[in-house]
Amino acid sequence: MSSTAPANSRDSQATNTTDYLDGPRLLADIGGTNARFALERAPGQIASIRVLRCADHAEFALAVETYLAETQHPTVRHAAIAIANPVQGDEIKMTNHHWAFSIEATRRRLNLDTLLIVNDFTALAMSLPHLEPAHLEAIGNGKSRAGGVIGLVGAGTGLGVGGLIPTAGRWIALGSEGGHVTFSPTDQREIAVLQYCWTRYPHVSAERLVSGPGIELIYQALAARSGSAVEPLTTPEIIRRALAGADADALCLEVVDCFCGMLGTVASNVAVTLGTLGGIYIGGGVVPHLGEYFARSPFRARFEAKGRFGDYLSQIPTFVITAPYPAFVGVAAILSEHLGGGNAIPILERIRKSRSTFSPAEQKVASLILAHPRAVMNDPISEIARRAEVSQPTVIRFCRSLGCQGLADFKLKLASGVTGTVPVSHSQVHVGDSSLDVGVKVVDNTISAMLEVRDNLNAETLSAVIDALSQASRIDFYGFGSCGLVANDAQQKFFRLGIPTSAATDPQVQEVSAAMLRPRDVAVIISNSGKMRHLAPAVEAALASGATVIALAPANSQLAKRAHLTLAVEHDEGSAAHIPMVSRILLLLLIDMLAVGVSLNRSSPFAELQRQAKRGILNHTAPAPGLEAARLDDDGAPQVPVISHTA
């Protein structure tokens, strides 16, 4: 199959038809049955469309290579792929086909500078602002509000739900699994359908019924309700019989009516949940097959049937997407934004085009970067210089010749050009991975885990832990194995802050030490599992002594349940064979946070006054008037203030 798609843009893409300076961009829409490919030679100019059967190709990369061969091997540097599959990390394993591949390994195999893989529904959502009016069919009344949130519902093999949020001149796709919300009936007929489904499934989601397979289930349920003995029918046959005009099958027509009403309810729920004043768009493979019937179906009436919110919904327009290949428009928009839009030349292409203008030494740096871009992103300047066989100043000159402020700035631009961001996704290490792949994955996994810790920090808990450590008379750190290394590291850091500290990695030493703690002291228990098997004696002894117990462990672990305060570290190592132990890095990171926080807390004059005030209140004496009143120890240094602490 070969065809040329019409221009699919109604904003900035349509105003610039100049070919991309770095060659055409590869676009693809991968489903379980077919793989659709196209080339975008200029903004909005999507052509050379081919549809290949997935079953005819053993690997995804082979399908790409076949397509490029059919289009006479154009030079392609950048590609964006929509795939009917969750996209989490580097490894893709399709749920509706046997293809499985590494994004990074595929990028290298295809000699691409950029390979973006996105969920197909995300691509469909991102196409919406760029579709022409001719590729949309309005259903009912309503008018889109400029800058309003856009909603998307797609009934196909499943039920997709998503949205677009406008922000700062761009759109952000909202990932969602809204199709799996619990199905909610709105009339007696739908109650009967739900009751029929309950005989088969303990939980009935909206997707179970509002989808292609769902039409068959509705057919079976309504047949059982009427006591009819009917032949088993597929969804296409049910739709064909329902739309047969004067010869329409009454039961099949009722099924399609019921489906459209259910879809209207789902769409209205999305509309009121997201506030989609920009409109609701209907995609997926089912509704287009309903043709003109859909406009007169119960869909729109059900969409507006929201009681007191009926007037609100009547103002929101609904559209059916009729564009032949909307996913291409979406991935093209995603790739354009990723690469900076327009004709902006990514940094790898700039290096390639400017190579002849570099000095011989700088050309060595260029060759290294073009051959191993991912490795260069992680290498220090000394390693880059060594591998390129040049001096470190040459590396800096090379970076500045490209308009970068230095190596760090260059690496950020390089990371954006290769992956869209600094590589932070989790990807599984496999037997057979090359040394470079292993190195990249270990770094990526660590950064990903660190960012997860950052994003899940509880500000209130962190502040409480820092306060408790700042006021402690003595701090003990306990841990085993790799956590024992963290305990020793913590002891070194906090000892330098002038706080009496100790670290213990032996169970008996921990128990004895914990028994000697006092109410003003703190015991920090470090565990990547949070299990109490070896830690229990020390934890119970610390609690019995009245000390504050702080856990660095998983949030719902046994240790966390016994501690007064817990800074959560949620990371599953997956296998004891993975020696790097990302959790150890995360625990060290938490120790650094606490050390810096305590250092700032103890060095702040305001904090010192607060501590003296608290000490005075707790000791039932007048607080010291200022820092000059702080007591001095035997060496003439300010004595660490302490307060009675109750966890």
TrEMBL record:
Question: Pfam families, per this entry?
Answer: Glucokinase, HTH_6, SIS
Catalyzed chemical reaction(s): D-glucose + ATP = D-glucose 6-phosphate + ADP + H(+)
Q: Which residues form the HTH rpiR-type domain?
A: 345-421
- Binding of ATP occurs at 28-33
Region annotated Disordered sits at 1-20, 627-647
Q: Which residues form a coiled coil?
A: none
What the entry lists under CDD domains is as follows: ASKHA_NBD_GLK, SIS_RpiR
Location of this chain's protein in the cell: Cytoplasm
Is the keyword Nucleus in the record? no
Q: Does the keyword rRNA-binding apply?
A: no
Alphabetical keyword list: ATP-binding, Cytoplasm, DNA-binding, Glycolysis, Kinase, Multifunctional enzyme, Nucleotide-binding, Transcription, Transcription regulation, Transferase
Which segments constitute the SIS domain?
465-604
> Where in the sequence does UniProt note compositional bias of the Polar residues kind?
1-19
EC number annotated for this UniProt entry: 2.7.1.2
What family, per the record? Belongs to the bacterial glucokinase family.
NCBIfam families, alphabetized: glk, PRK00292.1-3
Q: State the PANTHER family in the record.
A: GLUCOKINASE
The protein here is known as Glucokinase
Traced from the root, the source organism's taxonomic lineage reads: Bacteria, Pseudomonadati, Pseudomonadota, Betaproteobacteria, Burkholderiales
